[in-house]
Write a structure and sequence with these properties.
The complex is a heterodimer. Chain A is an alpha+beta fold. Chain A contains one helix and seven strands, in the order αβββββββ. In chain A, a hairpin with a 2-residue loop joins strand 5 and strand 6. The N and C termini of chain A lie far apart (85 Å). The chains are: A alpha+beta, B mainly beta. At the A-B interface, strand 2, strand 3 and strand 4 of A face helix 1, strand 23, helix 2 and helix 3 of B.
Chain lengths: 144, 501
């Protein structure tokens, strides 16, 4: 009985440090929810960042617009807006010309709206870009 | 009506690039997509752009109807865009696919413009010609070039030409290609394809009053703000190249930049609204902005800087600072010009809650790039994309020492910076573009740019004490808590923040 107790204690003595070792090696996920929000306990003196971190609070987004395939003689205001209605671009644009421009936008902006005359389209930002065209997709009522 | 049977109709693909410049509207189906034609204001019902052999006429695509077993003019149809017709012949090439059928015809109609129809602007269609495929329909695949004279009463009128494909019995379909309609294209695809209307353009710059931010100024057309959500905040430390206390309040300046463009898309003026909010320093710091890549010669003039009489800076005739490779404006050469010290032994201005908050005032610096349409022809105009966050390079000038500049991390110094300071003390600048103005041991910056107006730190309290998620954001390389500066629950510690504005 005494022997089995001793063996049990020895096994525990081996297992517990082992568990601690393996636990400390498990990569912790980045905190991406609000659980850790609260009075800050991290000191600036401990903060080290990658030399490649750009310290930007914006992301560069490229907006592409495919123009119409033919010149229809329309040149008017093209406006690009955020979901909250803030204009990020305004300029005259010929409807048959392609458009490409990059914008540094706050990182909470997830979609862009294009306005051109009566045409208004909203598209999600995918990766670092967003694309538009002037087409209206209609399903043809044709027989196969 | 002439009906010409063409045994061998050889017509090359027509690579039309313009509707606006031609005196005819043409359609050869080669865009291969009905949605592309709809965007050009054609309307199609039960007709598709097809590469099926049975109805192919030429090129890679031909319009292909449904099986024509219906006498309704809306069973299978095409409508042209709105046009002002001219004298001449409407023409197209057509064929059947060889399947069986009773009769097959193409009705040619026009639709007058009717403003009372708010959806399409269409009045009642009027038939003015018909093409009947010769019988028998069975096994018929002959190409026919069909022409129809534009009726005299339609010349100069705004109409659509409406083709209806009709028939009875069987399964035969028609192919249609190389449509030609004499006249001017007047549809506006940006206005539900209604006919173009005269725009009100008071200043005559080509931008309608409705869409012009400056309807009475032909040299200005659009406002374009560099950041979309109002003012942004710049915050600096001033002990560079030594590390500071990271309260980022040695100079706090809000900014909003409007790049005013004209109808050609050239930047006419750059309006820089600045609100110096705080100076937590004992130093007499200055503040400038370089627009990297913009030549000083492209700038006609500047205004609005606050420069003291015995300035350390030298200026060009156009108001930019002399001796720089890129256009550099000194907004103020001494923070004392723009923020009044409260006295009473305060170390700085608006950074110690024990002292009253001093009034802050907006100042506007303007960089003029075009004046009444004129610009420096040798240097060229500046396009909107040339003034972006990428080449916005604001900097602090430390305590009246022109050669000591503090820039945002990763930004390059101006030509006046003392290069011998780089890489000394705590600075990591080593010539690599991304290395400038970052801490040697920790990668921390001496300046921050936040695209919102945010409170700044009380003197001597580092930024992680006021913004609870700043540490996590920075430590993650910006992957988490990208919104660390927002006023969300638990994000800020207001007791160590000040908000002069």
């Amino acid at each position: 009985m005494k022997n089995s107790k001793k063996i049990g204690l020895r096994i525990m003595a081996l297992i517990i440090p082992g568990m601690a070792f393996f636990t400390s090696c498990v990569e912790q996920p980045l905190e991406d929810d609000n659980r850790l929000i609260g009075p800050n306990v991290e000191a600036i003196g401990d903060l080290k960042v990658s030399e490649f971190f750009e310290w930007k609070t914006t992301t560069e987004i490229t907006v592409n617009i495919e123009g119409l395939p033919m010149d229809v003689g329309v040149n008017r205001k093209l406006a690009l807006l955020t979901a909250s209605g803030d204009e990020i671009f305004a300029g005259s644009h010929k409807m048959h010309e392609d458009f490409e421009m990059s914008f540094d936008l706050p990182q909470d902006i997830k979609s862009i709206t294009m306005k051109y005359g009566k045409i208004e389209k909203t598209a999600e930002i995918i990766g670092k870009g967003v694309s538009f065209d002037f087409l209206t997709v209609v399903v043809d009522d044709v027989e196969s | 009506m002439k009906k010409i049977i063409i045994v061998s109709f050889l017509m090359g693909m027509m690579g039309f690039q313009s509707y606006a410049q031609e005196n005819a509207v043409k359609n050869d189906a080669e865009l291969g997509s009905t949605n592309a034609y709809r965007a050009l204001c054609w309307s199609l019902g039960a007709v598709t752009a097809s590469n099926a052999d049975g109805t192919m006429i030429n090129g890679d695509y031909t319009f292909r109807t449904n099986q024509l077993t219906n006498s309704s003019n809306y069973a299978s149809w095409m409508k042209s865009p709105w046009m002002i017709l001219e004298k001449g012949e409407i023409s197209f090439v057509t064929r059947l696919d060889g399947s069986a059928g009773g009769d097959r015809s193409i009705i040619i109609q026009y639709i007058p413009f009717d403003p009372k129809d708010e959806e399409y602007g269409e009045g009642k269609e009027v038939k003015f010609d018909t093409f009947d495929f010769p019988n028998p329909i069975n096994n018929q695949t002959t190409l026919h070039k069909v022409t129809a004279e534009v009726p005299d009463e339609l010349i100069g009128k705004t109409v659509k030409i409406f083709f209806s494909f009709v028939g009875s019995g069987g399964t035969a379909r028609a192919g249609v290609d190389d449509i030609y309609i004499p006249g001017k294209y007047v549809s506006d695809p940006s206005s539900n394809c209604f006919p173009k209307v005269e725009i009100k353009d008071t200043d005559g710059d080509g931008v309608s009053d409705e869409e012009d931010d400056y309807p009475n100024d032909k040299f200005r057309a659009y406002d374009n703000y560099l950041t979309p959500k109002g003012t942004s905040t710049l915050m600096f430390e001033d002990l560079w190249p030594a590390k500071g206390d990271y309260d980022f309040n040695d100079l706090v300046v809000n900014y909003m930049i409007n790049r005013i463009t004209d109808a050609e898309g050239d930047v006419v003026e750059v309006l820089i609204d600045l609100i110096p909010r705080a100076s937590g320093a004992g130093y007499s710091n200055g503040f400038g902005i370089e627009f990297t890549g913009i030549s000083p010669r492209q700038v006609l003039n500047t205004s609005g800087s606050k420069i003291k009489s015995a300035s350390i800076h030298e200026f060009m005739e156009n108001g930019l600072e002399s001796g720089n490779d890129h256009a550099t404006v000194i907004a103020f050469d001494d923070v004392d010009n723009v923020l009044k010290h409260p006295g009473g032994g305060a170390l700085g201005v608006n950074t110690d809650p024990k002292f009253p908050i001093q009034r802050v005032e907006k100042m506007t610096v303007i960089i003029y790039l075009k004046h009444e349409g004129e610009y420096n022809k040798d240097a060229g105009t500046v396009k909107l994309k040339e003034i972006s966050m990428d080449n916005f390079n604001p900097f602090l000038i430390v305590n009246q020492k022109r050669s000591v500049e503090v820039h945002l991390p990763g930004k390059l110094p101006t030509a006046h910076a003392d290069k011998s300071l780089f890489g000394t003390k705590d600075d990591n600048s080593n010539g690599e573009e991304t290395s400038f103005y970052k801490g040697k041991d920790n990668g921390l910056p001496w300046g921050l740019n936040v695209t919102q107006s945010i409170p700044y730190m009380v003197n001597k309290v580092d930024i992680t004490k006021g913004y609870n998620l700043f540490y996590k954001w920075a430590a993650s390389g910006g992957k988490v808590y990208q919104d660390w500066y927002l006023d969300n629950d638990g994000y800020r510690e207001s007791k160590v923040l000040l908000n002069a504005q």
